[in-house]
């Protein structure tokens, strides 16, 4: 199992305007590369980032790291059967940045 650092207890930061911003766990100054994660690693990642309830959707759909890297916005919004608000945050603040980091890391 992966150990994610720099995550607050809730995995979220309260903004001055009352909105909540989710944070991505960081390993060695950059996002982790999920390419070799199993389903449990994906579930633990989302639990660690404050999406405890939604993490079970990744378990139910057997989403491992390679599957996570292939997910589209539509997959996250409709394929996981989770509420729209959390689904948008999961895609924009976690799935998309993880995909981008993976591409940058493996482009060289």
UniProtKB/TrEMBL annotation:
<dbReference type="InterPro" id="IPR050548">
    <property type="entry name" value="PcG_chromatin_remod_factors"/>
</dbReference>
<dbReference type="InterPro" id="IPR001660">
    <property type="entry name" value="SAM"/>
</dbReference>
<dbReference type="GO" id="GO:0005634">
    <property type="term" value="C:nucleus"/>
</dbReference>
<dbReference type="GO" id="GO:0003682">
    <property type="term" value="F:chromatin binding"/>
</dbReference>
<protein>
    <submittedName>
        <fullName>Sterile alpha motif domain containing 13</fullName>
    </submittedName>
</protein>
<dbReference type="GO" id="GO:0042393">
    <property type="term" value="F:histone binding"/>
</dbReference>
<feature type="domain" description="SAM">
    <location>
        <begin position="37"/>
        <end position="85"/>
    </location>
</feature>
<dbReference type="Pfam" id="PF00536">
    <property type="entry name" value="SAM_1"/>
</dbReference>
<dbReference type="InterPro" id="IPR013761">
    <property type="entry name" value="SAM/pointed_sf"/>
</dbReference>
<dbReference type="GO" id="GO:0045892">
    <property type="term" value="P:negative regulation of DNA-templated transcription"/>
</dbReference>
<feature type="region of interest" description="Disordered">
    <location>
        <begin position="1"/>
        <end position="35"/>
    </location>
</feature>
């Amino acid at each position: 199992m992966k150990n994610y650092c720099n995550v607050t207890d809730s995995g979220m930061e309260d903004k001055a305007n009352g909105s909540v911003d989710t944070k991505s766990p960081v390993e060695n100054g950059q996002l982790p590369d999920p390419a070799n994660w199993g389903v449990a690693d994906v579930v633990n990642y989302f639990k660690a980032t404050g999406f405890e309830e939604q993490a079970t959707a990744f378990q139910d759909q057997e989403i491992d790291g390679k599957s996570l890297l292939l997910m589209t916005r539509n997959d996250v919004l409709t394929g996981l059967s989770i509420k729209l608000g959390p689904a948008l945050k999961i895609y924009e603040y976690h799935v998309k940045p993880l995909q981008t980091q993976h591409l940058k890391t493996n482009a060289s």
